[in-house]
Structure formats: C-alpha cells, structure tokens
Automatic annotation (TrEMBL):
Organism: Microbacterium insulae
PROSITE patterns: HTH_ARSR_2
A Pfam short name: HTH_5
Lineage: Bacteria, Bacillati, Actinomycetota, Actinomycetes, Micrococcales
Protein name, UniProt field: ArsR/SmtB family transcription factor
Domain of life: Bacteria
Domain HTH arsR-type residue range list: 4-97
Length: 111
C-alpha cells in the first residue's frame, strides 16, 4: 500500500514528466506501443540527443522501461496501469478556455 509520501512522489514524477511538451509527446507516442530513440526522433521531428535526454528523464522518473535488442534499445511505458491511467486522463473532460491564459502567476506554463 502506498503511503502519502510515496503517492506524492508518484504525482510529482508524473507532473514533471507531463509538464514538458516534448516528454508529453514521447509519452503519447509510447501509448501506441514500444519504440526506439531513432524512430521517436524521426517521427517527432526532434534530434536524437534531445530524445535521448527526455527518455533518460522519463526512465529516471520510472515511467518508461528499456529492453535491449542487440544494438538497439526499445522503450515502452513501464506499467499497463500507467498506460490505462494516461489514456483515461486523455479522455477526461477538462474545462479549459483555449483562448484564455493560465491565471496562476506561479505556473510555469504561463511564463
């Protein structure tokens, strides 16, 4: 059973991962299935270095795992529960006025 502190840690890891648009794009791509850094870079129009750095962050947060396959490494979301949770989150209705800026002056997305 998760403690309050461990639940907070999980929320912080998810928040950190999803706060960055590139990491969010990578997670969205991995929702469709495992992939490789070179494919992610090409499909997302990013440099391999950029993808590699973001994959390292996502892996460090425990959100993705790797599987060595010869000279390549396959990346995928670490747990089916996380995959289901992210999909459910995407299906949730969030009241957002697309034209209105965030009202929280401390929010990083507003700066």
């Amino acid at each position: 059973m998760l403690t309050i502190a461990s639940r907070l840690d999980v929320m912080n890891r998810l928040g950190r991962a999803m706060a960055d648009p590139t990491r969010s794009r990578i997670l969205l791509t991995l929702l469709d299935g495992p992939s490789y850094p070179a494919e992610l870079a090409q499909n997302l129009d990013l440099s391999r270095t950029n993808v590699s750095n973001h994959l390292a962050c996502l892996r460090g947060c425990g959100l993705i795992v790797t599987t060595p396959e010869g000279r390549r490494t396959r990346y995928e979301i670490s747990d089916p529960h996380l995959t289901r949770g992210l999909r459910q989150l995407l299906e949730s209705v969030v009241a957002v006025d697309e034209g209105a800026p965030c009202v929280d002056e401390k929010c990083e997305c507003c700066q």
